[in-house]
Specification:
Blueprint: H1 10-17, H2 19-47, H3 61-72, H4 80-90, H5 107-119, H6 128-141, H7 169-181, H8 189-199, H9 213-216, H10 246-258, H11 266-277, H12 292-306, E1 310-312, E2 318-320, H13 321-332, H14 351-363
Antiparallel strand pairs: 1-2
């Protein structure tokens, strides 16, 4: 996966300052490992059921997120919690390559996240065949010529929760991340088709987005979907524009980076400018505490891919975003090691899901 090599000077400054910075870095690292270990213990000792699942009533997606979060934060692939979780996920494998319950309306979402879990513990290649079949399945769910839609259609290139469901940026971002994690090139036609859709979820007029929405709210941020008449979870502007919000703007930025766009691309520049204006971890800007922990893991992945160790906000203040995010998550961790959102929208009242999101965010905080 391509990482930008933009020099922000933070490491040079840290080296020049000396011992005080090193002590602070060690303290930050210690806190990072402490919160990771507590969250991992919660999932392994409290969150996981006898059958290896996490929150099975929600389908296999929470299990896939929990396993991925554990693996990316250092739990060994041969640990019992991982083995049981993977066995549970594989029990949903279909001849089609999908990894989902029968007749699931969330087949794309569940399969994409399961791919990330399997890829994270596939160093020995044991899941190569399963991943190859799942990759083909995910590509088959993408809205493209197979659905008899024209490339000019706002749905083109996107992915929804399941087969034939309206595409949205969140599920398309998971599709892109899953394919790239499984080793698909950024130049793969499926990734580039997805980039078409992602570009159309941005409030930025240009050759990549000729839809009417950006003219009504040209702020460079991202919204939920341009399909089916367009929708933003943050609502509309008074003139009918679609409001941008942080979790989707980070999802859009991450997806554009994974699809090979560099810093000079106007879409990347506009997204970064919006995020500089709205930088914070106290809330999900534009949504408050709705989807807060989904926001954390998306923001962390995007900022990590961006490659800036210090992220400068619109006021010119440079932020050690990793240290700030670790501190924010540490302050929100429950005594038992879990996390939970008081706002239960989008299932964030489930500590298994929210703890999985937190671990995924913390994984990107490891430099």
């Amino acid at each position: 996966m391509r990482r930008f090599s933009w020099c922000c000077g933070a490491l040079l400054v840290a080296s020049a300052i000396g011992g005080g910075v090193l002590q602070q870095a060690a303290a930050d690292d210690a806190e990072l490992e402490r919160v990771i270990q507590a969250g991992s213990r919660y999932l392994a000792e409290i969150g996981q059921a006898e059958d290896g699942s996490f929150s099975a009533e929600a389908g296999p997606a929470v299990t896939a997120l929990a396993v991925t979060g554990l693996l990316r934060t250092g739990t060994p692939p041969d640990a019992e919690v991982i083995r049981r979780g993977i066995d549970y996920l594989l029990s949903f494998s279909k001849p089609s390559g999908g990894i989902h319950p029968d007749e699931s309306p969330y087949a794309n979402y569940e399969t994409a996240i399961s791919v990330m879990a399997l890829a994270a513990c596939n160093d020995d290649g044991r899941y190569d065949e399963t991943l190859a079949k799942a990759e083909a399945f995910l590509k088959g769910l993408q809205w493209d010529g197979g659905e008899s839609i024209d490339p000019a259609d706002p749905a083109y290139g996107g992915a929804g929760y399941g087969s034939k469901q309206r595409p949205d940026l969140s599920n398309t971002a998971f599709l892109i991340e899953a394919l790239r994690t499984a080793g698909v090139s950024e130049d793969d036609p499926a990734i580039q088709r997805a980039l078409v859709f992602v570009s159309r979820t941005q409030n930025l007029e240009g050759p990549a987005n000729t839809l009417p929405f950006p003219a009504k709210n040209p702020d460079g941020g991202f919204y939920y979907t341009p399909a089916n008449g367009g929708e933003s979870q943050a609502g509309e502007t008074p003139n009918g524009g679609l409001r941008s919000y942080a979790s989707m703007t980070y999802a859009g930025l991450k997806s554009m980076i994974f699809a090979g766009l560099d810093r000079e691309d106007s879409r990347v520049q506009a997204a970064v400018t919006w995020l500089r204006k709205h930088y914070t971890f106290e809330e999900n800007p534009g949504m408050g505490d709705s989807g807060l922990f989904y926001f954390y893991q998306t923001a962390a992945k995007a900022l990590d891919a961006l490659g800036e160790d210090a992220f400068t906000d619109a006021a010119g203040v440079a932020h050690d975003w990793r240290a700030e995010l670790v501190s924010e998550l540490a302050s929100r961790q429950q005594p038992d090691g879990s996390w939970i959102n008081a706002n239960s929208r989008w299932l964030e009242g489930d500590p298994n899901l929210v703890t999985a999101y937190a671990l995924l965010a913390l994984a990107s905080c490891r430099e």
